[in-house]
Amino acid sequence: MDGPGESDESDELDHLDPLGPVRDPHEPGCDVYLTGTVFLDIIFTGLDSAPVRGTESWARGMGSSPGGVANMATALARLGLRTSLAAAFGDDHYGEYCWDALEQGEGIDLAMSRTIPGWHSPVTVSMAYEGERTMVSHGHEAPPPAGSGAVPRCPPKARAAVASLAAGPGEPWIAEAARRGSRIFADVGWDETGRWDLGALTDLEHCEAFLPNAGEAMRYTRTECPRAAARALAERVPVAVVTMGSEGSYAVDSRTGETAEVPAITVDALDPTGAGDVYVAGFVTGSLAGWPLADRLAFAGLTAALSVQEFGGSLSAPGWPEVAHWWRAAPNPLRERYGFLDALVPPGATPSPRRRAVPTIGFKHPV
Fold first, then answer.
1. Angle formed by the axes of helices 275-288 and 293-307, to 10°?
2. DSSP label of 351
3. What is the block-wise mean pLDDT of the chain (367 residues), using blocks of 10 residues?
4. Alpha helices (runs of H) in 37-136, residue ranges in sequence order
5. Which residues are bridge partners to 83 per DSSP?
6. What gap in Å lies between CA 358 and CA 367, rounded to an integer?
7. Left (φ > 0), alpha (ψ -120 to 50) or beta: where does 203 sit?
């Protein structure tokens, strides 16, 4: 993890476009728009236990990468979606590194982003051990541009937008994006107030799909079962997807009455950072490509499973080379469930590790 990966993927996998069969020249050039806070993530790995007060712990590995909303943006871009990100960047070396890693390294459109003079980048230090992580963050809210809000009120016309919902009056950009024809996919964070008031998620009315985890879904719906929670949520949103960790995921499409459940893929998890973002990116990809509901769940679960086998948030997001590598060696019991990948992964393509953003800041020359 202390150096960049290989950069010689086959052209077929490197430029695979999952939306190719459904693209229309009259549709938006942007596939997915999102906005939020970009952190510099510094990840320490190889810790045998949690740090103890009054002692010094040495980690056997470390990496640095753009984090926060950059996790989702990177996951979408690596799956071949044309991604536009509106975010503030610090006018420091951390901000410069994050901007270059996203724009040059991942091909993310940052035309709606901005660098703020005198503002330092938010930072998160993540310590991974025993399959879990502990994080410490620091940062200040970015000052808004003169004469406008912190987020562009008129997002670009896009096939979809990804939002993180919060209780309150709603974000104007979400309603505007929906009005302009974007399909809104949303997740939600933990409700620190403990109210778990579904009605307070005002922007849910604009969403096509809502993807909470089981704990969140059951609390919001006052149910005791993730599947019951999904059915209850489907009364408020067209597609409700509840992720259930090692049990997989369950979804209800209230427009068609269809339900689907796909078990999780068993892997040796190293670091769960960003896995939820990767799951949403996989589901968005399948949705925009028009795949059946069960295939969307399966692909989202696969991408999340691939991500937790690597350390870091955006660093661990899989691309088509990783998907192809997994599919070539997939165990027989999974061949039927994931057979739809045969139509996506070019026959004869040679999978190789994907070039990743350089995980260590400060090198003057490529390592």
1. 150
2. -
3. 42 82 87 96 85 90 90 96 96 95 95 94 88 86 68 79 94 94 95 95 97 97 97 98 95 97 90 88 98 98 92 85 92 95 79 56 60
4. 69-78, 93-100, 106
5. 32
6. 9
7. alpha
